[in-house]
Every structure is written in C-alpha cells, then in structure tokens.
Amino acid sequence: MVIVNTCGFIDAAKEESIAAILAAVDFAHERGARVAAVGCLVERYRDELAAELPEVDLWCGLDATPLLAALREAGSGEEGAEGHGAAVPPPRRLRPVASYLKISDGCDRRCAYCAIPLIKGDYETVAAAEILRGARAALAAGAKELVLVGQDTSRWAQPGWGGLERLLAELKALEPAPFWLRLLYLQPDGIDEALLEALSRHSVPYVDVPLQHASGAVLRRMKRRGDGALHLDLLARVRAALPGVAVRSTFIAGFPGETDEDFDELLAFVREAGLAVAGVFPYDAQEGTPAATLPGQVPAALAFARAAQLGEAVDDVAAGFWRALVGRSLDVLIERGAKAGGVAVGRCALQAPDIDGRTLVRGAVVRRGQVVGAVASGSVGYDVEADAGRRNP
Ligand code: SF4
After folding, report:
1. Which pLDDT band, with edges at 50, 70 and 90, does 26 fall under?
2. Which of 9, 40, 116 to mutate to test the pocket of ligand 1 (most atoms within 8 A of CB)?
3. What is the pLDDT of residue 90?
4. How is domain 329-388 classified at the architecture level of CATH?
5. Is the shortest distance between the CB of 114 and ligand 1 below 6 Å?
6. DSSP SS3 for 129
7. Which of 12, 92, 160, 311 could form a disulfide with 280 if both were Cys (CB 3.0 to 4.6 A apart)?
8. pLDDT tens string 105-143
C-alpha cells in the first residue's frame, strides 16, 4: 500500500497533495499495490476527492482507524502468501538524527486567513507523559535532536503538572545526553520572560516566531496582535535572553486591504529585524475563512509581486546573519557523513531540520549522527561552510 499524507493548508499545498496522489496511483497500480490518501486535505474534502479520484482505494482523514485496519488486513493477507512478502526487500533504515514530537494539535486563535482550525479543530495538548515517552523512544533509537511542534507551542501546559518550562526541563534531563532540544511555532504573544529563561537553559538558541506582518492595521484585520514596534521589542528581549539566537519567522504579503504603505512598513521591518530566515507567502484566500470575503482583496499578481520583493529583502538580511558567523566556532550535527577528503553535511544549532539551510564541513571523517566542532569559513545564502577541528578560543 502506498500512503500519501496530504496537506490542505493553502492552495499550493492542495495542488502538491493531489499531484502526489496521482503519481502514487500510477506507481502503485503498475505494481499491483493499493493507494491510501490520508491527512488534512482528505479531512476537509473527502467527498469531493472520492468523487474525482475513484482510483484511490482508501480515503482516511485525521482519524487513522480505517488506515490501521486496512494495514492490518493487508499484513494478515500476506501471511502464507508464498514468496510475496519476501520479494520486497525491507527498507533501509537510517538512524534518525532529529525527531519531531507533537506537543499539541489544533488552534483556538482563529487568525482570519487560516484554515487550520477548520481542519484540526480546537487546541488540545498532548499529555506530558506521552511526550516524554515519545522523547525516550526517539533518543533510544539514536536521535540527537528533539524538535517540539504544534500549531501554538508556547501555550502548552498540563493542569496539575506544569507548563512548558517544566516540560523543557524534564525533556532536557533525559538520557542519553547530550542532544539538542528545539521548539517551533512560538506565537509572539506567548513568549514571556519565564519561557525565554527556560529556552536559554534547555533549548538551542533558535526561536521560530510567526509574525505575519508589521502593520498594526493589517495585523488587526488578520485578527492578530502587535505591530512592527512591538515585534522589534520582542526580538530585543529574545536576543538578550539567547545571545546569537537565530530567529525564524513567516510573513504574508497581499493580505486583503494591504496598502502600499502597509507593505512598505513590512519591508522596512524586515530590513531592521535581522532575521536568520523567514518564509514569505503571497496571501492565498481559503474558503471558509473570514479573510476570504473581506473587502479590498489584493489582485493575485500584486500579492505575488510583493511576496517576491519581500522574499528578496529577507534573503538579503538573512545572508548578513549567516555571513556574520564566519570565524565563529560551531557544533555541527552531521546528517550525511564523510570519508577522508570528503565534505560532510549537517546543521549547526541555528538551523532547524528540513526547513533551514545546511552546514557543510570539510576536513572531518564523521558519521551521520555525530556532532563535530568546526569553525565557519564562509556562507552561501542560508548555507554555512565550515572547517572541522579548528576551534577559536
Ligand atoms: S495561530 Fe497559526 S494555526 Fe492558529 S489560527 Fe493563527 S495561523 Fe492558524
């Protein structure tokens, strides 16, 4: 069975999901396999998808029960099917370097543009015991980094047990140490002094804070708080608590009602904010969200042009952040090892897995999962080049 995990967040993700389903159908049916499409897109558009794509054998939204039942059935069907199971070589398993732990799901915030609450529903925490169990299992399997995720991680708390500060402390005390701990998707108004203190003690110096815009008027229409001045104040507090921190953010260009002045405010903010990396998205109206029917919809071509301009500004500013690392000592977690004379590929603590740049290390004979000391010797965009072994004092 080929399983396609889909996303239904924005149109580009929906199109990519459907393309992946179609590719899976071709691939699987040539080989006599079945196709299951699962996840958020299916949760939201199951009936329409099932009508349009009858070639898919199983549709399964966020409740995995039908998928698990089908897998059990397929597994039991293989028992005794002579030679069939043995003909498929087991997949090559790489030791996990970084492991994601979901600490919450859903969101109560209702930003005007966002379909996630429509898909995922209200905010729910994962219990501390379950998170710790997942962390122990990941570390036992060889993970050297735990990445905590959820739509709104900063508000995690378990009544009678404690909040994020305790969770971070308990996770960081797990064995085998050392490993990196990273937290993604901290909403700006959830970052207080207690959390910054906990991050400074337990996590890598990395803060992922979706700011979305800098114009107070646009943020109000988005049903979000803050403005450029408050964002800068937050970034100053983050940098005071976590010296050298890499700040990642996301922005939307072309939100309904965004004027040239609003966009200029956003551009000016990005040039001042010193971000290490940011995702920039042209506004993409999602059916069922309040923003889709707001007056003042920005023409798509203008939203794309603004997003491109903002993306260039982010690239420029971020290049300065990574260039400034040259000469500094870095620990690099290796994701692809190297033999003598080769170049190993990994990440320093300022780079999150899957979404950020890489650090290329010369002069090290290393294996995947090892951490090597290196000194940054250059940067190319969001990637860092480093030489192993030499350590500055
Ligand atoms: S906080 Fe994030 S997930 Fe929640 S509604 Fe806003 S954009 Fe969507």
Report:
1. very high
2. 116
3. 54
4. Beta Barrel (2.40)
5. yes
6. helix
7. 311
8. 999 999 999 999 999 999 999 999 999 999 999 999 999
Q: Model confidence over 313-338: pLDDT tens digits?
A: 999 999 999 999 999 999 999 999 99
Looking at the CA of residue 117, tell me the nearest atom of ligand 1.
5
Strand partners, 60: 38
Better-scored residue on pLDDT, 91 or 263: 263
Q: Please provide the CATH number assigned to the domain covering 98-323.
A: 3.80.30.20
Q: Regarding the domain with residue range 2-87, which homologous superfamily does it belong to in the CATH classification? A: Methylthiotransferase, N-terminal domain (3.40.50.12160)
- Sign (positive or negative) of CA dihedral 30, 36, 41, 42: positive
To the nearest 10°, report the CA torsion of 122, 128, 134, 140.
160
- Residue 338 gets which letter from DSSP? B
How far, in Å, is the centroid of ligand 1 from the Cα of 24? 30
User: Quick check: CB of 151 below 6 Å from ligand 1?
Assistant: yes
Name the strand (E) or helix (H) holding 158.
strand 157-158
- Any atom of ligand 1 within 6 Å of the Cβ of 107: yes
Instruction: Name the closest-CA residue to atom 2, ligand 1.
Output: 151
Q: What sign results for the dihedral spanned by CA atoms 223, 355, 236, 253?
A: negative
Write the single-letter amino acid at 247. V
Nearest-angstrom CA–CA distance, 198 and 164: 8
Nearest Cα residue to atom 1 of ligand 1: 109
